């Protein structure tokens, strides 16, 4: 594997606070009190698993997903514990659905200690959370930790991922490089999400650096058909391949990249503001679709755009 002088970043959660925003949609639905019960919880302060008589809450999410939130009894009252559970349950619902696949519990403790993922769990220390909220990166940090929980087991040691690691110029961060099996998936998934589905929220230079450093890792994630709901993935306009316009004969020809089993509309405008459907519900012809027809009127100029039928 060819390596550059050094990975371009130290850690990906710090790169941009806008990859997922507090205003983004959440799958969170409701929180129900479930009393108290003994739970074995990892606490970074003693760096050990400890059995606590925790406050328990059941958080429900779209898709019949339920997560038990276990709050350390050091919060003293059920009201204080519920407040902490309510602080994080909606944020967790902003993560892509695939990252919640294996999350069964959340542990919440006091302390200015790192978050954690794995063990079918997300680990939160509230003073550290305050810092992440202040910096605008709480959602980005939870993406990282949930990647450990729901992606590492299936991907971190897979042949495809290892091949992508070996083919790429370098790791995206020094943290990933120094912990290649444990951290590379979590460090890379967040930037894949940013580049592929939130590129309007990051700088062009950041996007270019990520693409240049990890092209094969990005492609690996592209090929996984991940469920990213509730992150809204805008449909890209079909790419025009060929066109011909004859204003003397008043006819046109268009060819564009298309998707199997889709329908397309050709729209026209004379001012790029007011659009009308020129030809509707054109069936896909495979990877490319073409159409030709007469123009209804004579124009000094005319613009075309192609959209999948039903897109607004």
Cα distance, first to last residue? 46 Å
Give the class from helix and strand content and strand pairing: alpha+beta
Give the strand content.
25-35%
Secondary-structure element string:
EEEHHEEEHHHHHHHHEEEEEE
User: What is the overall silhouette?
Assistant: elongated
Brief sketch in words of this structure:
This protein is of the alpha+beta class and 312 residues long. 31% of the residues lie in helices and 29% in strands.
What does this structure look like?
- The chain is of the alpha+beta class and 312 residues long.
- It has 2 domains: 1-233, no CATH class; 240-308.
- The protein contains 10 helices and 12 strands.
- A 6-stranded mixed sheet has the order 1-2-3-4-6-5. A 3-stranded antiparallel sheet has the order 7-8-11, with no helix packed on it. It has a 3-stranded antiparallel sheet with strand order 10-9-12, with no helix packed on it.
- Helix 4 crosses helix 8 (180-197), helix 6 packs antiparallel against helix 10 and helix 8 crosses helix 10 (215-222).
- The longest helix is centred in the middle third of the chain and has 18 residues, at 180-197.
- The mean pLDDT is 92.
Features:
single chain; 312 residues; alpha+beta; 2 domains; six-stranded mixed β-sheet; three-stranded antiparallel β-sheet; 31% helix; 29% strand; elongated
């Amino acid at each position: 594997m060819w390596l550059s002088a050094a990975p371009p970043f130290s850690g990906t959660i710090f790169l941009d606070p806008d990859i997922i925003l507090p205003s983004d949609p959440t799958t969170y639905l409701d929180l129900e009190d479930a009393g108290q019960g003994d739970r074995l919880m990892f606490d970074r302060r003693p760096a050990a698993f400890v059995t606590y008589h925790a406050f328990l809450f059941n958080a429900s999410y779209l898709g019949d997903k339920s997560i038990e939130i276990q709050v350390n009894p050091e919060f003293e009252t059920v009201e204080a514990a519920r407040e902490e559970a309510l602080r994080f349950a909606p944020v967790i619902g902003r993560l892509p659905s695939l990252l919640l696949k294996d999350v069964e519990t959340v542990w919440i403790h006091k302390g200015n200690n790192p978050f954690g993922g794995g063990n079918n769990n997300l680990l939160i220390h509230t003073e550290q959370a305050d810092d992440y909220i202040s910096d605008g990166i709480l959602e980005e940090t939870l993406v990282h930790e949930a990647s450990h929980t729901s992606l590492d087991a299936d991907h971190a040691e897979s042949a495809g991922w290892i091949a992508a690691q070996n083919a790429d110029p370098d790791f995206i961060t020094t943290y990933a490089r120094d912990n290649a099996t444990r951290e590379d998936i979590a460090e890379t998934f967040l930037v894949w999400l940013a580049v592929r589905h939130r590129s309007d929220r990051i700088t062009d230079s950041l996007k270019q650096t990520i693409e240049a450093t990890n092209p094969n890792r990005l492609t690996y994630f592209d090929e996984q058909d991940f469920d990213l709901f509730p992150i809204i993935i805008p449909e890209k306009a079909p790419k025009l391949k060929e066109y011909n316009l004859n204003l003397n004969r008043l006819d046109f020809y268009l060819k564009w990249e298309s998707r199997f089993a889709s329908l397309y509309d050709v729209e026209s405008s004379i001012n790029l503001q007011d659009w009308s459907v020129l030809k509707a519900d054109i069936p896909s012809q495979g990877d490319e679709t073409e159409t030709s027809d007469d123009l209804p009127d004579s124009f000094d100029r005319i613009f075309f755009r192609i959209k999948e039928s039903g897109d607004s």
